[in-house]
Amino acid sequence: MADTFTLGLVQMKCGTDSAANLEVAVTRVRAAAKLGAEIVCLPELFLTPYFCKTHQIELFDLAEPIPGPSTARLSAVAKEAGVVVVASLFEKRMPGLCFNTAVVFDADGSMLGIYRKMHIPHDPLFFEKYYFRPGDLGFRVFPTKFGKVGTLVCWDQWFPEGARLTALKGAEVLVYPTAIGWHPREKAEFGKSQHDAWETIQRSHAIANGLYVAAINRVGFEPSADGGLEFWGASFVSDPFGILLKRAGHLEEELVIVECDRRRMEDVRRNWPFFRDRRTDAYVDLTRTAID
User: How confident is the model at residue 225 (pLDDT cuts 50, 70, 90)?
Assistant: First the structure.
């Protein structure tokens, strides 16, 4: 395997026409491949506006089976462009049972598998527990043609346990398909600190685990009765020591193309040997909800 692999992050707006969103994503996958990307990642739930802003039972109609029509289209473009594709979908497992699911396609178009989002938020305008069951497949790594890809999704970003367990399974890059933004009424007071915290926690996962981290966010304002959300974009790639390699802007659709060097991982892990020095014998209490 080559010393390097190249990530392509698709930062996009997500409109109300699912078919149009899918075709935009397909076009961006092709464009990223032409720019040298080998592993192309799409934002969380990119086929629709972020529907979890409200509790609406009819929105379950947006869910689809995996495999299904969207995975067939994504498989085809992965094979056509010769790239790995990571895509986030609203999975209908059976009537009344849905997941927030990342699907990984290898460069030959084969579907390597799925990861179901483990941590499910339930906050104002992020009412995901209404729609999604927590993931039941555990943390996963997919050995693709170009590298070992660990898939985590949005709210998973805040949990070091998920990043660590995925790294221990051999991931070379953690990819986080994301839908995160500002409540407009809060942006002036808290906006900068919220974004800074989001980026900092993910860069810390890169440092703690000596691997690359990529966050792929949507962009644009999406209205709702409670004021809507302004998705802040800022998709980025961090190197294994937390150095920001490239970041998109807050407002526009962009492709972020970044070459990642496995030798950098080796160098960081030799000089900062966190895996060597872990005290696995002392961590049993991490499985407890609280410690008295």
Answer: confident
Count of CB atoms within 10 A of residue 10's CB?
Answer: 29
Find the domain containing 65 and state its range. Answer: 7-278
Report the distance separating Cα 215 and Cα 10, nearest Å.
10
Residues assigned a catalytic role: 44, 117, 154
Give 286-291 contacts, CB < 8 A, sequence gap 24+: 286/161
The dihedral sign for the CA sequence 162, 163, 168, 169: positive
Asked, for residue 232, whether it belongs to a domain, the answer is yes
Do 90 and 131 form a contact (C-beta atoms < 8 A)? yes
Q: What CATH number does residue 151 fall under?
A: 3.60.110.10
- Tell me, what amino acid is at 116? R
Which among 260, 219, 255, 218 has a CA at the least distance from the CA of 238? 260
**pLDDT given at position 224:** 86
Beta strands in 24-130 (DSSP E): 39-41, 84-94, 97-105, 111-116, 122-123, 126-127
* 287 domain residue, yes or no: no
Phi-psi category of residue 152: left, alpha or beta, with phi > 0 → left and psi -120 to 50 → alpha = beta
Residue with tokens 């104002």: 124
Can you tell me the distance from the alpha carbon of 212 to that of 142, in angstroms, rounded to the nearest whole number?
A: 15
Percent of the chain predicted with pLDDT > 90: 98
Is 1 exposed, middle or buried (CB count within 10 Å of its CB: 0-12, 13-18, 19+)?
exposed
**Residue 291 belongs to some domain of the structure:** no
Q: How many domains does the chain have?
A: 1
Q: What is the mean pLDDT of the chain?
A: 97
Roughly what angle, to the nearest 10 degrees, separates helices 184-209 and 160-168? 30
Q: Is residue 290 included in any domain, yes or no?
A: no
Beta bridge partners of 99: 91
